[in-house]
Amino acid sequence: xxxxxxxxLITGAAGGIGKSLRRLLPGTYPELRLxxxxxxNDLAAGENFVRADLGSLAEVxxxxxxxxxxxxxxxxxxxxxxxxxxxxxxxxxxxxxxAARRQGVKRVVFASTNHVVGFYRRTQRIDNEVQPxxxxxxxxxxAYGEALGALYADKYGLRVMCVRIGNYGDKPLDxxxxxxxxxxxxxxxxVRIGLEHPAIHYDIVYGSSDCERAWWDNGHAERLGYRPxxxxxxxxxxxxxxxxxxxxxxxxxxxxxxxxxxxxFAGDPERIR
Length: 273
Ligand code: 15L
Fold this sequence. Notes:
Layout: E1 7-11, H1 16-24, E2 31-36, E3 49-51, H2 57-64, E4 69-72, H3 82-102, E5 107-113, H4 137-156, E6 159-165, E7 167-168, E8 181-182, H5 184-196, E9 202-207, H6 219-223, H7 236-245, H8 259-262
Parallel strand pairs: 1-2, 1-4, 2-3, 4-5, 5-6, 6-9, 7-8
Helix pairs in contact: 2-3, 3-4
D-galactaro-1,5-lactone is lined by residues 77-78, 113-115, 165, 167.
């Protein structure tokens, strides 16, 4: 049933998505191992938690031992200084893939982000094969993580699925998120495709629910069997009202990455085609 996924590791288990997956995944796989560099403040009795810092290859190898599949949520998940992004997402992601290889892990689901393609215009419809156009250091670090995934898939036979997550949560927060909202149960469906689908080698999909305003074509996920259950438009009025109260800035409003594009922006929007 679960394609030999007897023990599944979740990194970043103390973070927002980690906490949510920990409530949704039990019962799906025989054993879940949780890890983060800090102990989750909501750790329940019976949860199997092993502390590890992604910056230490030895510690990451330790948490990968005996694991069949990894859901890699660890690292920085927003724009930040290079001093923060580098150890967590550059060194840390390398350590994760290398430790997975050394420990004979079969599959990795890599939490990537829409910010890998943040500088695509909202007027364009992109698919999962476009070249990266990151909108910050965070987006660059995730593009690098995707590239590492390709290397470890092609060279070492690890099966890797990268999910370019839009915005994860119970509902779309504003107008922009109506185009990229990802509900928890739809993310679980994508994670299960990554960990179980027999055709996965190195695949990139977008992490969004049923968003009729999507700026991307998620046909690749659909071909892998993804059928999102939750519709962004069910929350339309609230989301539009939020953006009416807090409109996007002039640069944010042009591009997929929104406010991440506008941070530190000193370019010429006209030249970004
Ligand atoms: C992300 O990648 C972040 O993890 C999340 O906090 C949001 O900022 C999201 O993108 C977004 O673009 O809305």
